[in-house]
Each structure stands twice: as structure tokens, then as C-alpha cells.
Amino acid sequence: MPRAATYDFPSDLLAGQEELHQVRAELLALLKRLPWSVEPLDGFSDDKGWRKVERPASPGWTPDEQAEVEKLRQRERELAVFVTCHR
């Protein structure tokens, strides 16, 4: 069986991609911990559609939580552009 080709990618590209994976993992973990709604909302239940939807009441996110999500999303965008447009 022929050996697969290997490539020497630039170290800054590899580091950027690794950081992007880390930032996305941090963001996903944070979003899983936070309430489902950014703003405080009452819970609801709806069984009239094609599937039942239920959400508990949400206290909303604190300003610090909102800032942390925005910081991670901004860094994710920066890294995604860096990796995608790397030359």
C-alpha cells in the first residue's frame, strides 16, 4: 500500500488551529453550563407542534457571563479567519 503524503505545515498555522480548537471547546463548555436564555425568561411547555418543547425558567446570563461568551466568540472569529486565510 502506498504511503500517504505528509506535509510540513507552518508552525504558526498549526498553533492557530490548535488554539482555535481550544477556544471552541471552552466556548462549548461555557454555553452548556449557562442558562438556555441570555435574558431572564419564564419557562414554557408546548406540545402543539410536531414535537414537544419544554424549557425551564431562565435567570439569564450575568454581564460577566455575556462578556466571557463575547470574548471567546471574538477570538474564535479571529482564529478562524487566520487559519482560513493563512498564506
Specify the helix fraction band: 40-55%
How are the strands ordered across the major sheet?
1-2
Structural class, by secondary structure, is mainly alpha
Write down how many β-strands occur, each being a DSSP E stretch of 2 or more residues: 2
Mean pLDDT: 95
**What string gives the helices and strands in order?**
HEEH
Q: What is the helix tally?
A: 2
Provide a descriptive summary of the structure in words.
With 87 residues, the chain is mainly alpha-helical. The protein has a domain at 11-39 and 59-84. It is 52% helix and 7% strand. The protein has two helices and two strands; from the N terminus they run H-E-E-H. It has a two-stranded antiparallel sheet. A hairpin with a 6-residue loop joins strand 1 (44-46) and strand 2. Helix 1 (11-33) packs antiparallel against helix 2 (63-84). The protein is elongated, with a radius of gyration of 20 Å. 2% of the residues are buried.
Give descriptors for this structure.
87 residues, 2 helices, 2 strands
TL;DR?
The protein is mainly alpha-helical and 87 residues long.
Q: Which secondary structure elements does this structure contain, and how are they paired or packed?
A:
Blueprint: H1 11-33, E1 44-46, E2 53-55, H2 63-84
Antiparallel strand pairs: 1-2
Helix pairs in contact: 1-2
